Amino acid sequence: MDIPGIVCGFMAALFQSLSYVASRWFLKRSGGGPLQLLGISHIWMGAVALVLFPLLSGPSMPPLMAYLAPGFGAMSFYLIAQASLFLALRHTDSSRIAPLLGLKVFVLALISVVALHKVLNGWQWSAVAFSVGAVFLLNESGERLPWVAMLAVWVTVLGYSLSDLCIKQLVVVLEPAGSKAALIGVCVTYIMGAGAGLPLILFQRSEGGGRLWWMAAPYAAFWFVSMLFLYITFDRVGVVFGNIIQSTRGLMSIGLGVMVGRLGMIDIETRVTHLVVARRLTGAALMTAAIMLYLKA
């Protein structure tokens, strides 16, 4: 058992959960919108990636044109997913959105059956049923989710799924670079992300000035650190087990939501009853079980 890889997986889930709270904080208190957060945060992350890239890469790197296409695909689908995620977070609490990202099980099943013509076994169909049941529980835990938020969640999950396929191809192409291939892949995608973020800033009217940049920094820091931990996890324990560990972000986000609400920041996280928290935890646990069933079947 690779203990460091497992620990990195839980750290990735924790920092991702923190990033959801930070993005909600920006959207509620900065006066900026989803596209501004998307643009500013990716310029921050791209700048860090630009510094790390020459430290991680070396003479064994494949030619630029070999990894340009999968890197572009990974970042393009990811940016669509992030923009949709921010839209969802603008309409409801992060503790309700994060567990719903486990709907990737449903999307993976759909892609497998429709596009790849695969036949799912009984355990995998059970996982799909579990994920649908989890959505029902999470949707009923408090006020019903706005349709805009639910639609944004579906687009987010689809974007992440397609991005994952491109990331897998990117890391394979970068394998000649050795054990640092996954981390180099992070740098490649976020350098491209900065290029995509720049036009979003130039064509958006910014009324907050430097304040928006500093308020977007916590999200950028939490997300980038989570990606570094996640890619290390994938490298050490594999993508399947890594995704199972990452699915605990739903449970972590609910716990963070309770803490934030109890601190009085009800504009960021609504304070809810113990019964609602119990329903959300049950839904998040059911979603985690669905992911474990699907990926291990």
Provide tags for this entry.
single chain, 297 residues, 12 helices
Question: Explain this structure to me?
Answer:
This protein is mainly alpha-helical. The chain has one domain. Helices cover 80% and strands 0% of the residues. It contains twelve helices and no strands. The longest helix has 28 residues, at 64-91.
Tell me roughly what share of residues is in helical segments.
over 70%
> Counting H and I runs of at least 4 residues, what is the number of helices?
12
Indicate the structural class.
mainly alpha
- SSE order in H/E notation? HHHHHHHHHHHH
Unreliably modeled segments = none
Distance between the termini: 20 Å
Nearest-integer average pLDDT: 82
Computed Rg: 19 Å
The global form is globular
Q: Biggest sheet: strands, sense, closure?
A: none
Beta-strand segment tally: 0
Total domain modules: 1
Q: Name the beta content range.
A: under 5%
Q: How would you summarize what this structure contains?
A:
The chain is mainly α.
